[in-house]
Design goal:
The complex is a heterodimer of chains A (about 400) and B (about 600). With about 400 residues, chain A is an alpha/beta fold. Chain A contains twelve helices and 13 strands. In chain A, strand 10 and strand 11 form a beta hairpin. Chain A is globular and about 90 Å long. Among the domains of chain B are: about 130 residues, D-Maltodextrin-Binding Protein, domain 2; about 170 residues, 3-Layer(aba) Sandwich (Collagenase (Catalytic Domain)), CATH 3.40.390. Classes of the chains: A alpha/beta (about 400), B alpha/beta (about 600). Chain B: It is a multi-pass membrane protein.
């Protein structure tokens, strides 16, 4: 733990390590939603951020059909780009992120707050193609990465509109209600990023951001030939860890390892992690649970027919066993079952751990009261102003 | 220098202008500091004395002014306010909230699965009493486990079945779940055989010797009861598991509801319930794809070289798979597409190792999980139905044979909710064409995979019984899914007051509820296919309501924003209105005071 504020993480981890029987991830598919929200050439780095993440999740095995890539501007084809048709995330220009195999699902002006919310909640027009939909279910893990310019509880889209932390939180709650995810990792790289996930209230969401309230997120370095900054610091250090440690989809590195690698001095802002909605211990959550695509496999022989009552299958297949033998065998299984029910008490308490987090955070009575007072005050001041003016006018 | 812009006489009357000049001289030093228009009281008093007051207003003018003010207020209140209200309110169609909640909590439908079992006992004299005993045993078991959704009902097959073959067909409406045939068999003891292609189960029992007539029939009764239990046990477990979350209501944010749900769960769990199986059922459920009225099946041949160049997939499918698909057609429809991909390499992270003992290349289980090369294999579907992939992979000759040591039957594995993969090892000079005889084992594996992915219980060997059981399972699933969607919608509508609810949602919800209750009725009657149909409509309507595209929550507006929008608009409009009525009231009060003083 590099930061005292992260002590909470340690405490939570120890608290949550108790129900380990739930720790194994239950997902059968992985999805990624990668969003850059800013427009214009000088925001080159945001597109590079998002394309770097795209490259990473693809490298770790998530197929294009399960990645929703939202690119808000086309810097590769910008006339100011010295290297037309390419996007680089490093001054050494080793990797062309805009290479030959990239599938942009939402581009340019299609990247709007409304489309993003529609994508999450799947309230899309009926003629929407499959590639523009998030077709997840309750066994899907979703990785959501956002980058752009933001502020306290908002993120700007296209320099024209903004999404608030409340909007995202509500959209996630709708996803939860419709069982559209198993677990979710929300990562955001923007100024005051940690405020963006502060309003979440749906279970099984793990969130991380680049900077605290009133902190800016900075770019890492500029490429003098491209002429602008090419990557943000937080994303850069995430990528550095992923590239050097998580070589392929069978990597055993955990999210705790990734989060421990964050160094606020290098990142130049304080990255945040929110774990109170998440139920597993981060030390047991593989990075590839979210950023990779590891399909669980059932091999014929161990998975397909394991659950069968072998005896009755044998009987079904025509093997004849006398009644005595059969009963003997059944008795054995009964005893086994009864033995296994003895620990059912604690098991059921562990299984029944349902989520009981805070209700909606922002409906706070006190702030509402002051908000009302201030609004009323503003109205009153205006009235008094008009009144005074008209008094002068009359006299 | 114009002091009193209200007095028209100031500029043209010479006498008054001289007074002004005198006054100016008196207060010149103060005037320099004060802005024009400001004067102290003494100046004002002297000025007032010199000015001519405007003539008193005529009563009609006053009346007209009151009318003007009144008409402005009337327009504002009776036109402006309603207009403002009508254009800014969010339309929320009325929804049967309580009913939706009840459905989602499983209060309105006690799901039951009455199963009719026919018994044929041609050579047993007191078959009826035997049936009574068995029924008793089954009912006892049911009472013990209070909430079992299944109710087995036994019936003696019509004795004259052979005489009048039309009769049983007429009664087919009642859907016999399975037919037990009791046959005496002297060679072995008690045993049973499940016919794999019909619903018939043969039960063999030792022929009664005259000495122990009663003990044999008691033993037989017990045996029959146990067989029935075994036949439907797996399905029961599954359906119970499906129905449980409905009552425990996992989506509820209300923390209070969870302990009660636990109680319900504990109550529902019979004490002798094999608890270890819950994880097992969970695992099996995780394999099953979500129910959909139609699926798309993609059969792909991926070969590491250019050979084989073609395959007999069409005839193989029609020969080995179509019978199964048509048997499944009451549950779901299937569309099929096939593809061949040459020079398809497995993903680079998978490295088979050569095993000297097996003389073969082997794949470890970790390799299998990233076996699918999703970056390069064209497996994305454009169909809107859920897609199931079946992949036949032919490894490179230099890596043949490629085997999966942990697989017992064939080199195949299943990816939950996704599809199945079979590795086909050809000899070193492969033919350029795969005949359908070569494809047969692979197609059979795919058929097994398909059944597993769709959720058919693997247990009784009889396919019709398995499919019946799949129908029941799927109808339970759509019922649960439709009602939980209704519950989600209800909670959503309550939680987000800024969301608009169009009338279509309301009709969809009502449709869904109507079909839900119809499905429930059909279930109770025992016609499961119809129940599935109704449930399917209910689910579709519920989904349509939930995913109504106009129901996207308004982008969040804090109160400050609303104030900022309204104040510049309403401030200038409302101040003259308010001040106007204020002055009017003051005038009326002054008049009344004056008249009171006069009288």
């Amino acid at each position: 733990m590099k930061l005292s504020a992260w002590g909470g993480l340690a405490v939570l981890s120890t608290l949550l390590s108790a129900p380990t029987c739930l720790a194994h991830s239950q997902h059968t598919s992985n999805w990624a939603v990668l969003v850059s929200t800013s427009r214009f050439w000088f925001n080159y780095r945001h597109l590079a951020n998002v394309l770097s993440m795209y490259r990473t999740v693809k490298r770790l095995g998530i197929p294009d059909s399960q990645i929703i890539l939202m690119l808000s501007d086309d810097v590769a084809c910008n006339p100011r780009n010295t290297f037309p048709g390419t996007v680089y995330n490093n001054a050494d220009r080793a990797i062309d992120l805009y290479g030959d195999n990239i599938e942009v699902d939402y581009r340019g002006y299609e990247v709007t707050v409304e489309n993003f919310i529609r994508l999450l909640t799947d309230r899309v027009p009926p003629d929407t193609p499959r590639s523009k939909r998030l077709l997840t279910d309750d066994r899907s893990n979703i990785f959501i990465y956002m980058t752009g310019h933001g502020g306290n509880e908002f993120l700007k889209f296209q320099d024209a509109e903004e999404i608030s932390a409340f909007d995202i939180a509500d959209a996630f709650q709708q996803m939860f209600e419709k069982k559209r995810y198993n677990e979710m990792l929300f990562m955001i790289d923007t100024c005051q990023a940690n405020t963006m996930y502060s309003k979440f209230y749906s279970p099984n969401i793990l969130a991380t951001g680049s900077s605290e309230l009133d902190q800016s997120s900075y770019s890492h370095h500029a490429d003098n030939d491209v002429g602008v900054a090419v990557i943000d610091r937080y994303t850069y250090f995430n990528l550095e860890y992923l590239e050097t440690h998580v070589k392929n989809a069978s990597s055993k590195h955990t999210l705790a390892d990734l989060f421990n690698s964050y160094d606020p001095v290098k990142i130049a802002s304080t990255p945040g992690i929110r774990t109170d909605l998440f139920q597993r211990d981060l030390k047991e959550v593989l990075i590839t649970d979210f950023l990779g695509n590891v399909q669980s496999v059932e091999v014929d022989g161990d998975g397909m027919r394991l659950d069968e009552d072998l005896l009755s299958l044998a009987r079904g297949a025509g093997y004849n066993i006398s009644e005595a033998e059969w009963k003997e065998a059944m008795r054995g299984t009964r005893e086994f079952y009864e033995a296994s029910t003895s620990d059912s008490g604690e098991r059921s308490t562990a299984e029944s751990r349902t989520w009981a987090g805070p209700a909606r955070v922002y409906k706070d009575g006190e702030t509402d009261f002051w908000r009302t007072v201030m609004s009323a005050g503003a109205v009153a001041v205006c009235f008094v102003g008009y009144w005074l003016m008209s008094m002068v006018d009359k006299s | 220098m114009l002091r009193r812009p209200t007095s028209p006489s100031a500029s043209n009357s010479s006498s008054s202008s001289s007074t002004v000049a005198a006054m100016d001289a008196k207060s010149a030093s103060r005037d320099a500091a004060l802005p024009s228009g400001f004067q102290d009281d003494t100046d004002a008093a002297t000025a007032e004395a010199t000015y001519k007051l405007p003539p008193p207003e005529a009563p009609e003018t006053i009346r007209t002014r009151s009318w003007v003010i009144a008409s402005f207020w009337i327009v504002a209140i009776f036109l402006g306010l309603p207009l403002w209200h009508a254009t800014t309110t969010i339309y929320r169609a009325p929804l049967p909230m309580q009913e939706m909640q009840n459905w989602s909590e499983g209060k309105l439908c006690k799901t039951e699965f009455p199963l009719l079992v026919e018994v044929e006992a041609p050579s047993l004299p007191e078959a009826e009493s035997l049936l009574k005993t068995v029924q008793h045993a089954l009912d006892d078991a049911n009472d013990f486990a209070a909430h079992k959704p299944h109710h087995l009902r036994l019936r003696l097959a019509a004795k004259e079945a052979k005489a009048a073959p039309e009769d049983p067909k007429a009664e087919k409406g009642e859907n016999v779940a399975c037919l037990l045939r009791l046959l005496p068999d002297s060679r072995n003891g008690f045993n049973h055989t499940v016919h794999s292609s019909s619903r018939t189960v043969d039960i063999h029992y030792p022929p009664p010797s005259s000495s122990s007539q009663s003990s044999i029939s008691a033993g037989l009764a017990k045996f029959v009861a146990e067989i029935l239990e075994v036949l439907f046990w797996q399905e029961q477990e599954l359906i119970e598991h499906l129905l449980l979350p409905q009552t425990s209501n996992p989506g509820s944010l209300n923390a209070l509801s969870s302990p009660t749900a636990d109680e319900a769960r504990d109550k529902k769990t019979p004490p002798a319930r094999p608890r270890a199986l819950t994880a097992d059922i969970n695992r099996r459920m995780s394999r099953v794809v979500k129910y959909s009225p139609s699926y798309h099946l993609t059969f792909s041949l991926f070969t590491a070289t250019s050979l084989p160049a073609s395959w007999d997939i069409e005839s193989a499918i029609s020969q080995y798979l179509t019978p199964l698909l048509s048997a499944l057609s009451p549950i779901s429809n299937f569309t099929i597409s096939t593809q061949v991909q040459y020079y398809a390499s497995i993903s680079s992270s998978v490295t088979p190792t050569f095993d000297e003992q097996l003389n073969a290349w082997t794949l470890k289980k970790e390799d299998l999980s990233s076996f699918i090369n999703s970056a390069e294999w064209p497996l994305a579907s454009i169909s809107n139905d859920p897609n199931l992939n079946f992949i036949l992979y032919i490894p490179h000759p230099s890596m043949t044979p490629l085997v999966i040591p942990s697989a017992s039957r064939s080199d195949s594995f299943l990816l939950p909710q996704w599809g199945g993969v079979t590795i086909l090892n050809l000899d070193h000079n492969p033919a350029s064409h795969l005949s359908h005889a070569t494809l047969k084992p692979a197609m059979e594996t795919f058929a097994t995979h398909l059944l597993a992915l769709l959720g058919a219980p693997p247990h009784p060997a009889s396919l019709p019984i398995r499919l019946d059981s799949l129908t029941r399972q799927r109808s339970a699933e759509v019922l649960v899914s439709a009602s939980s969607t209704l519950g989600s919608l209800q909670r959503l509508v309550n939680a987000l007051p800024s969301i608009s609810i169009p009338a279509t949602v309301s009709t969809s919800v009502r449709d869904s509820i109507r079909h839900l209750s119809l499905a429930c009725e059909e279930l109770r009657k025992g016609s499961f296919v119809k129940a599935l149909e109704m449930g399917r409509v209910a689910q579709e309507e519920a989904e349509k309501a939930f995913f109504e595209r106009t129901m996207v929550a308004q982008v969040y507006f804090p109160d400050e924003h609303k104030l900022a929008v309204y104040l510049p608009l309403l401030g200038p409009v409302s101040v003259p209105l308010v001040l106007g009525i204020f002055r009017e009231v003051k005038r009326v009060l002054a008049e009344r005071k004056a008249s009171r003083a006069a009288s």
